[in-house]
Amino acid sequence: MWPFAGRADQLEAVRAAGPGMVVLGPAGTGKSRLVAEAVAGLAGVAWVRATPAAAELPCGAFAHLLPDTAPGGNPLRWATAAITAPVLVVDDAQLLDPASAELLHRLALQGDRRLLVTVRTGERPPGAVVALWKDELLPRLELGPMPRAEAEAMLGAALPGRIEAGSLARVWETSRGNPLYLRELVLSGALRDVGGLWLWHGSLELSATLRETVAARIGDLTGDERDVLDLLAFGEPLGVSLLDAAATERLEDRQLVTVSRTGRRLEARLAHPLYGEEIRSRWGTLRTRSVLRRLIASVEPAGLRRREDVLRVAVWRLDADLAGEGEDHEHALMLRACGQARAVRDLALAERLARAAGGGRRARLALAGVLSYQERPEEAETIFAALWAEAPEDSMTAFECAVLRAQNLAWGSGRIDEALRVIAEARGIVTSPEYRQSISCFEISIRAVGGDLPGAVALMEETVVPGPQGVRGAGSLSAMRSGVLAIADAAGPALDAVRYALDLIATQPEAMPSITAQVLDAGTIAAIAGADLDLAEHYTERAEALGDWNRSVLQAAASAARNDRLRGRITGALHRVEEAALRLPAGRSASGGPCLGELAQAHALLGNVEAAEEALARAESAVLELGPPVTFPLRFAEIWTAAARGDLTAAVARAEALIDTPYIPFALFALHDLVRLGRPDLAVDGLAALAGNGPLAALFARHAAARTGADLLAVATEFDALGFLLFAAEAAAIAAVRLRAAGEPRRAQLAEQKARTLRHECQGARTPALSSLSTPDLTPRQREIALLAAGGLTNREIATRLFLSIRTVANTLLAVYEKTGVNDRAELGVLLRE
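and the corresponding structure tokens:
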């Protein structure tokens, strides 16, 4: 049986209702299942299931509870006396015949038993049933769609493993929280198990059961009602003025259609997405073309005044095979629609529209841009190169071709030098000051991501356009400044630049997803530098809402995982990037660096060394190594993978290799990693020099400079207050060690308790500092050797790695066994994993 999950409050309400309750709701919301769960285990429960067939006979639904022969006299009084069950459940009471409804009403008046009644909304129940709640004989409970969290719990109970977040969102949107539809979607094969992670599989195909279920909900229709639903199935939302008014009103009454006001226009939509799926599944090609032509004829003559009409009519014309009519006019429509589809990042549709736009220069340029965004850089470059060789006919075309081609060469193929060469050639053609400024902005961004941050900063300081400039030019400039400042300057100026850029973008009627994603990523980095994880998460959530554009989704997922990791939500971080990694393209991608870096680091922090190494090995063939923003996340993962193996010497060496970089956030975290690895002496001067780069840098510097247990405990308290729980737990753990060494056992105990409490919130994190909680009496060298031994290395291997003699290693391990009370490597491994 499909598991029952969620509805905890409603279940408790039904169970607690002494005289009983009426549960109302649309079809499929789980009314019957809720009541069944409420009475499970109770003695003396009788069920009455109303059906259309039973309604043909007086008291037909109750027939199984009544004697075969009715005595003379009042039949309702006889029937009431004959039903003796202490708990009576009446399911689908809207279908009861008048006599059965009156019998139910009399039983409620009698009040000597619990009555649990379900009623489907959208239909007209008998008056005696309505009187149950209208006359306050029984309380009424409205049961609507399941909230998303409860739907997720239901799916989690039904399916082994986890559901990928995007797939969960799609199932939720398709079912709208209706438990029956949710179950049938899963049973129809909409989800596929990929290594324990359930993913939406292909396009939605309704199973026979689901189709019949939805068709039964739609019910019988008149011809004009069917016509309205057909038009909405292919064209929603539609203005009410385009539909038959009387039929639309009847459909709204039956809750098959919803009508809402958008601006000055009333718009109709189907009340549930599956209604459209069921209707479209019954239509053949010719009937589909017919309704699409009707929609075009209704909307196109008005002149496509509404922006969304451009995209809808273009798609209708494609699907109706009308894309070749009208040529120049048709091609212009397809190009406009392509721009809109690209803006909302429906890249598959944008490609269809670009290919239908006639093959002219503008159409090919649009197609190349879409291919680039789809991470098909070689296909895009073939078109860009041909267009560039044709000598662009005007400054705007030259500008667009140059920046799109340079962007594709850099971010798509890692050909930084060629991208910069295209930018230089464009400067010789483009004369508009605003376009020249935007070209410089692209060059700055390319240099920054490619590793030449000093060159990017120097060029940024020179890039000032004289006179007024358009919003896109100002947007490019502000986006570029926010990105460079976030990785090269203090947190404050970067956050100011981010806020300015977002305010500017918000004034535009058209979406600017690429620029917005760049600004939000910069905002997340700057917010972390400002020690404001709430703001960082806010910017990341905005980035996640930009649409299903693969590059943006992967970037946002890596940012979200970083936020989770810093908060100590290590398992949460792992889940985010595990799902995102499934979206990585087959070839090399710049998005792979942050994504796989966070994946490997999460595994390492959880002690999953083999999984961390697998993620890093995958990165070797999946990552387009442009420069520090792409590669440094992998380098940080290597630090913590070495630490998870117990090789602290290698971990420290890897961290030291990253500190000499002009990319301030990376330098800060590399230096702080040295502190976390037990080598504050190697980081104290560097962090002191960078302490002015925002509140987090200042706190990192205080952490490195802390000498006493009390100082470390104060640092832990600051980290805790800011939400950096893993850092707080580590600082508190080392504070406990130093306080104990200083002869302050009571304070050491308090610090240790704080560290254990914080570690518990870090979802299983294991780091060298936290290992001190299970081995508080070990020196750093003893702990390093213990970790390597627990990891399976022999004495000889440890000696070789740490440049020690085998005898020294053996003697150190004996001291470790004596201090910890264990007898061998296996017991030591168990102790260190606790």
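(Above: one complete record from the training split.) The longest strand covers residues 114-120.
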